Amino acid sequence: CSKVLDEKPQGVVSSEDLNTPENAEKMVIAAYSALGNDYWATPYSSMWAYGSIRSGDAYKGGDGPGDVGDFNAYETFNLNRVDLGNADGTWFRLYVAIGRVNDALGRVNNLTTAELPNKTIRQGELRFLRGHFYFLLKILFKRVPFIDETIAKTDYDKISNVDLSDQQLWDKITADFRFAADNLPDVQADKGRATRFAAKSYLAKVLLYQAYVQDDRNNVTTVDAAKLTEVLTLTDEVINSGKYSLSTDYANNFLSRFENGTESVFAIQYSKDDGTPNGRTDNGHSLNYPMNVEYGCCGFHTPSQNLVNAFKTSTSGLPLFDSYNIVNTAAGDDFKTEGFDPRLDHSVAIPGHPYKYRPNFIFQISWTRAPQIYGRFMSLKEVVLPDDPAFKKFPPFMSSSKNWDIIRYADVLLFKAEALIELGRFNEALPLINAIRTRASNSTSLLKQADGSDISNYRINTYQPGVNCTWSQTYAREALRYERRMEFAMEGYRFFDLVRWGIAAEYLNAYFSVEKNRASHLRDAVFKKNRDEYLPIPLNQINFSKGLYKQNTGW
Amino acid sequence: QIKTVTGTVTDQQNNAIEGVSVVVVESGKTAITDAKGRFSIQGESGQTLKFGYVGAVPYSLKIGNAENLTIQLDLNNSLNDVVVTGYQKERKKDLTGAVSVVNVQEIKDIPLGNPIKALQGRVPGVFISADGAPNGGASVRIRGIGTLGNNDPLYVIDGIPTKRGLQELNQNDIESIQVLKDASSATIYGSRAANGVIIVTTKRARAGYSRVDFDASASLQFYTSKLKTLNAEERGRAYWQAAVNDRSDPNLNQIYKYEWNNNFDNPVLNRVVIPEFIDAAKTMRSANTNWFDEISQQSLLQSYNVSIANGNEKGNSLFSLSYYDNKGIIRETRDKKLTARVNSDYSLLNGKLRIGENLSGTYMKDVLIPTGDVTGLSQIVFSVVPIYTVNGGWGGPAAGMADRQNPVRLIEDNKQNFNNFWRVFGNVYAELQIIPNLLLKTSYAIDYNGNYARTLRKSYTSGFLSDPSNAVNTNSNYDGNRIWQNTLTYSIKSEKHQADFLIAQEQINTIYQGFGASRQGLALENSDYAYLDAGSTNKDNGGNGTSSALLSYFAKANYTYNDRYLFSATIRRDGSSRFGKENQFGYFPAFSAGWRLSEEQFIKESLPVVSDLKLRYGWGKNGNQEIANNATYTLYSAVYGTNAIGNYDGGTAYDITGSNTGQLPSGFALIQQGNNTLKWEETSQHNIGLDFALLRNELSGSVDYFIKKTSDILISPAYLAVIGEGGARFANGASMQNKGLEFLLSWSKKIGNNWNITLTGNAASYRNKVTELPPEILTSYPGNGTDKNILGRPITSIFGYVADGIFKSAAEVNAHATQPGKGIGRIRYKDLNGDGVIDALDRDYIGNSAPKWIYGLNTSISYKDFDLSFFLQGVQGSMVNNGYKYLTDFSSLAPGANFGTRTLDAFTPQNSSSDIPSLTLVDRNNEGRTSTYFLESGSYLKLRNIQLGYNLQNALKNLKVQRARVFVQASNVFTIKSKSYTATDPENPGNAYPIPLITTVGLNVSF
Is A314 near chain B, with CB under 8 Å? Predict the structure, then answer.
């Protein structure tokens, strides 16, 4: 009689079936696929919702503060809560990704090199991926439970987020990248796989974050010179490898036809027409297209007035560190009378300006979603033109198969510059920063009106000590930080830079004090120092852990 | 001396009764009355004639000298109804469980496409909710919410258990419906009976019964629940008010321009200027569209039924056919349903062996209009948007509006898409009388249903929304159950003792198989062309399947002593493939007892007013196995990619080579954690009830009180995030309790020769509370997860802030606690914990969406050939979280939407008595949070149905008509709702299909 009740599961496999070398390789692919398994409410493939709209560079956008209201809570800080579903979702999605890595790594570890000749390479790739996901968790939530492939699933609920100190957690992440840097090959046949130099670059990035040592209340107390020195070593290895260079035009980093170019150190590989309903596309950015008929949704991630002002340059072509925000740039959308960093028109869609390098495709205020709330600008780097081969509509949303860079070479150069400046070797940082500015200066060939003239009045120059500036450590630090803002505007990491440098509270409250008069949704926004540097540990997780997890400081 | 006795049998109204069995007790000779109620039988003086008829008080008389007898049977006494209570039949007076018998006659002409919908409010303790969709789905809750998963009852149609509702059944085929509410009666159905059992018996022919029935009705349906939205000019005014309240320039918007005094301190609007065109390209001319009118229609509903029945000593057969065609009140929606039924049985071996079958087939075709979107969009899309552009294209959103579709386009672009549904349901059976009173029955049943849909998605441009691609999708699936039952019954009877025994075995196998495919790139966008083969790009397909099995053994015994003391005991052992090897089987016992006090001499003597009185008590245990078929296993799946619009993509494919397109390498994802300790969820229930009939059955009724406890509730708890993907895992782990009270009272009176009045009222109330939950999943239910949690509270609790009016002055604002975004005209939230700050800690339980009482009152009056009935139904004491208020009361929660007319009456310094928050462009006060502002009373009283009929039988005496009746009726005639409910229909508070007013004319004829 028990035979009657013996029903076999249909269309699925058991865990044991996946231990073969062939299937272990497939589990590595499944781990990679987590890089882009994203959607608009809990994006982590791009960090715009946490790094851009919390940084003063961008407003949330959309229909109003209630449209994906959790992002409004991120943006205004004072409305942030411990029980936001989207923050909990982001936490969960990142652990889903880590779960795939650990699953694959457990299987790869159990194979011999005879069975799996690429065993150590795959181990390196997986630990690179795990390092990436933990890095994202670390900069979002600070203290998170660290679970690797050696821990049995039944013991997961015994791992607290405070088992490791802040520095110990950093060490776990760097350990993964160190393993990857030691075991990955210089070149991989598959463009999507991590390489030795991608691992070294990422390791440099993590060490740079770790070097700004925080106390329990998120204050930056010291800067660890040893870590900075290691950043220098690593970035030099990457630079001297000769594998990378700045792309000739800044625009190439944001155009699908140049993806996996010389500046791309590690990128999420997206695809379409690949046998999936909507393509394996960049859904983390799917809210960020304009509202015109060619697109039609959803008007998120709009550059702040402050950011647009910041592209204004002095008569000598340098940033206006202190004065850029006193007067609104080009209230009448006149970008001809003053001078601008060309990266403005690569980063920001402006009414009357060609959209995404197409002279006859003019961005209009009507393309914005709620200009009375979120202003008349939109973000450009993540989008593609409607006839781009990478563009994919899946109404009501849309996105593209254009890759999204996690680290590009410009970042590596500025990591090095930052380390040099903090080590007091600021003179050596000058050529690195100037290389970035020179490339920006040379990137105007696509920024043309239909008549061939420049869209805006571009005026950008390198730092020339004694000519247009005095290059001190303080000045260099200011220049480096400003350069990062310009170079990586709207790319999603600005807020984490501010926290790393320990200036988030001062910077953002100064921003709110002015910006609230331009954007009324910010009227009550305030950054609470010693709290808002990190998102709270989601209440759900504290509850699910039965109190094992401890809440972040200030929450 | 044998002679021929003839006579006529009628009911109390002197209507002939066909099919009455007439037996000469001594000789065993039988006869059946014909259509005129006449019989003829051979008998001797002094012998006893016994007259039997379903639902009638048995009647006997001695054969005397009279030759042409006139017999009047008492049909009013429902206690003699025969009730199917689980593989057996019992007289209602012998019942010891809580069983409600539905008066099918009252609902048979109500054309809702689903008989269960017509039962709304008619059975105490059964809560039915449904929207107005033409294909007639409904949710049925017997005695409240008893578990955290599936709360649907089990249906048993002609002995065959199924979890599908009754929407595929021909209403006219139904002979009887019984609802088994308590555990002692339902336990015989063991597994799956914890949510109650609804037993449906369809009509069969009987010996001596030959008849053709024809029923037809036609109805007109009306949309009566349109929300009042702003017209083009009013929407402009509302925006202006919001902008000047915020002291921001109202002319900074992309549609309207304003002529006003430009004085923020005393703003005066002179004129709203609507542009000629709303788009820069000047294709969309400003309109004043009433979207509700554009998407709705008065519609026609038709229903036809014919059934042919024929029976004699050797066998019986019935054939019926019905057609139902409901054009909904949303344009282009339509449900067409064809059902056919045959059943027959054959009597062999001198009546010792009966062989028969039931078979019904249903075909349904539904137009796939996204009606939820369409009704929602009718509130959201601005009135200034035209339906069509000046070029005949689709109008749609322009700058400054939300990215929402033109609802008329959604209707027009989907009207070519249909779902085809089929269902085959039936059994074959054989029943052998081994020795007298010992019956062996075997039945093999199938219950298969499937869907096939080929849909064309058209390309479009509508305002700034567009999709240049088109696609064809083809989906097909089927769901099957095979049910094999074997029962052995024995009954013995003496003068004082009566006992029935049942032992049985049942085996159920279920299977599901489905697949779908799609392609894009169709050269033509019409249905005749849009097959998969015609698509050229983006080929996609998928398929899946699952199966499960149940195996059960059970036994039941009923014992009655002297018609007074009633006992019943049941034991059932159920095995399910869904549970772990160790726990596949569960035992489900039940016991009940009844005491017919009215049979006791002391009652008969001291209380002659009592015609029937019965006290009953029952206890029993039921099981529930509503979890995934594979719940015990840890499983991985090759996911490749998912259709992840509005959700994350859980795919395992990755473009590792950077080639951007083509077939990708792919892996596997964990989809589920196994739990091989899973076991049956159990519900145990005590029921105590009293049935009574007074004044020679003029007044009758019953009262039931129950306590129902569900434990080891099967949940798939939310889990610690670090567990990651596929952490879902079923577990037994929660308990809840329902206590309730049910009343039924019926008064029936014949006044003079011509008047009959029957009033039947019922009311029920229950209280639910969660008694146990694993602590880590408390946050999955309303509450803050720590000190305020759902334990001890109803599962339908609502958790949120208490809105304490709106700030009317700066002094009030200053006096209040720190509340980010507070200001004059804004909602004030109560500082519940008194810490001077309004934050998440100020939330508490603010309401319960479950009603305190549900009730119904039916009145039937007949006078000569006229009959009139009306039925009132209501719920009392429920709270509705009225989501419409986002749009009807606020300009900031959905700034790109049209608003409701209430916004015109919002607070301003000049209109300071208003309790609607001041309009604003930006919701800085977070007023969309769950709060009492949105909670409104969901109580209502509806005139659910009113019907007037006229019996033509007397008028058509000369024709060979057995029955003829015409009627007019109306459903959902009016609603009385609480003043505090600000939308239209508290029964249907979301964007579900609106419930129409239906007016019907109809005809029933039998030959």
Answer: no
The C-alpha angle with vertex A543 and arms to A539 and A549, in degrees rounded to 5, equals: 80
Q: Is A274 on the interface with B (CB under 8 A)?
A: yes
Amino acid at B230: L
Q: What angle do CA B492, B493, B499 make, to 5 degrees?
A: 60
Query: In terms of DSSP bridges, do strands B2-10 and B68-72 run parallel, antiparallel, or are they unpaired?
Result: parallel
3-state SS class at A166: helix
Q: Which residue bears the tokens 């998963």?
A: B149
Q: Six-digit token pair at A188?
A: 């991989």
pLDDT digits (tens, 9 = 90+) for B496-542: 898 999 999 999 999 999 999 999 999 999 999 999 999 998 888 88
Q: Does A449 touch chain B (CB under 8 A)?
A: no
d(CA B469, CA B49): 79
Residue B646 near chain A (CB below 8 Å): yes
pLDDT of B286 > 70? The answer is yes
Q: Please, what sign has the CA dihedral across residues B986, B989, B994, B995?
A: negative
Lowest average pLDDT, out of A116-120, A129-133, B581-585, B906-910, goes to B581-585
Residue B240 and residue B919: Cα distance in Å, rounded? Answer: 9
Euclidean distance between CA atoms A211 and A165, whole angstroms: 15
Task: Round to whole Å and give the CA distance between B715 and B693.
Answer: 44
Tokens 């882009």: give the residue.
Answer: A36
Q: Which of A172, A9, A83, A164 is nearest to B636 (CA)?
A: A9
Q: Cβ–Cβ of B719/A372 closer than 8 Å?
A: no
- Provide CB contacts within 8 A for A323, sequence distance 6+: none
Contact: A280, B665; criterion CB under 8 Å: no
Contact A524 B779 (CB under 8 A): no
| CATH code at B2-75 | 2.60.40.1120
What's the rounded Cα separation, in Å, for the pair B922 and B463? 25
CATH architecture observed for domain A12-51+75-240+527-555: Alpha Horseshoe (1.25)
Domain boundaries, chain B: 2-75, 802-842+885-929
Contact A100 B669 (CB under 8 A): yes
Contact B540 A277 (CB under 8 A): yes
Q: Choose the mutation target among A22, A28, A80, A291 for the interface with B, i.e. most B CBs under 10 Å.
A: A291
Q: Contact at 8 Å (CB) between A402 and A270?
A: yes
The structure's pTM equals: 0.88
Contact B507 A4 (CB under 8 A): yes
Nearest CA-CA distance, residue B948 and chain A, Å:
50
Query: B654 contacts in A (CB within 8 Å)?
Result: 29-30, 32-33, 35-36, 192, 269, 280
In terms of pLDDT, which residue wins out, B54 or B581? B581
Residue B812 structure tokens: 């009030």
Q: Name every residue whose Cβ is closer than 8 Å to that of residue A516 and which is 6 or more positions away in sequence.
A: A522, A523, A524, A525
Q: Is A485 in contact with A347 (CB distance < 8 Å)? A: no
Which of A29, A81, A296 lies nearest to residue B652, judging by beta carbons? A29
Task: Check residue B176 and give its pLDDT.
Answer: 86
Span(s) in chain A for CATH 1.25.40.390 = 12-51+75-240+527-555, 244-492
Q: Does B248 contact A520 at a Cβ distance shorter than 8 Å? A: yes
Pairing of β B681-694 and β B610-624: antiparallel
pLDDT band at B88 (very low <50, low <70, confident <90, very high): confident
CATH fold of A244-492: 1.25.40
Cα distance between residue B867 and residue B890, in whole Å = 50
Helix (H, G, I), strand (E, B) or coil at B957: coil
CA–CA gap between residue A528 and residue B275 (Å, rounded):
45
Interface of B with A in 584-643 (CB under 8 A): 584, 629-630, 633-638, 640-643
ipTM score for this prediction: 0.96
Residue type, A163: D
